[in-house]
Amino acid sequence: MLSSLLVLALAGSALAQADYTADHNTTAITGTWSSGSQQVVPGVGFAIPAQEAFNYPKTTGVGYSFSDDGWYEIARFRYVANASHPECIVSTVIWAHGNYDLLDNGSIILTPIGDGYQQVQSQCGDDSNFMQDYNVTEFYLDWRIYTDVTFGPKLHLFQFDGSPVAPLFQLSPQPNMLPKQKLRNTGAQVVTSTSAGLVTTETLAARKAKRAHETPARRGWSSFWLW
């Protein structure tokens, strides 16, 4: 479904990175944006790609940065509940960057350059903490920027099916992002399957670092849950 929408959008639209219309926004999309309490912010302070590590925000949310030369960065932190087992909350922390295209039909396509990654943790299961690649092309059907009388510019993104993303507030008109180049070595990797049937991909560096910080009694569990 998503791939079909992408093909249709690309086929019927010309790239227009610098073409903003009054209908779409009260300001350009360039800058740094964050949802909710605005604690999840891309750039230095969130992800450490060379070490395949994260500095965890105080709250969940999502942050985006867009530069005026077509570069983007995403920071995302979220919980997913399990209705059958409420105690088995899964957390996901995501970082990725790459190039974005603004289409003249109002859509946005984010294309990663291949060094994104995510950490998945759960209170349940034998494999409760693992790293894996995250390089998903993201398509947003539409976007709007309004000026809130209290908070200033507010970005609204709509997913490929039209459902809205949580509103994003502008933290700065300048993009807060890491260097615009490949920042993580994705060479030597290990592919495994978790007890829940998930296929995971870790670099050897990530697996070595994880095991170095886990005692035999704590393997499969993380101090992350001590909040």
Please give a structural write-up:
- It comes from Mycena maculata.
- Keywords: Signal.
- It is a single chain.
- The chain has one domain (2-221).
- The chain is built from 2 helices and 14 strands; from the N terminus they run αββββββββββββββα.
- The protein has helices at 2-12, 204-212, and strands at residues 31-35, 47-48, 53-54, 61-66, 71-80, 90-102, 108-112, 117-122, 129-133, 138-148, 152-159, 168-172, 189-193, 199-203.
- An 8-stranded antiparallel barrel has the order 1-4-5-6-7-10-11-12. A two-stranded antiparallel ribbon has the order 2-3.
- The chain starts with a helix and ends in a 15-residue tail after the last helix.
Short description:
This protein is mainly beta and 227 residues long. It has one domain (2-221). Helix content is 9%, strand content 39%.
Spell out the helices and strands N to C: HEEEEEEEEEEEEEEH
Residue windows where pLDDT falls under 50 for at least 5 positions:
1-19, 190-200, 211-227
Helix proportion of residues, in percent?
Answer: under 10%
- Number of discrete helical segments: 2
Total tally of structural domains: 1
Oligomer: single chain
Distance between the termini: 39 Å
Give, in spatial order, the strands making up the sheet with the most strands: 1-4-5-6-7-10-11-12
Overall strand count: 14
Query: Rg to the nearest angstrom?
Result: 19 Å
Strand content: 35-45%
Mean pLDDT: 78
* Category from helices, strands and their pairing: mainly beta
Largest sheet: 8 strands, antiparallel, barrel
Shape: globular
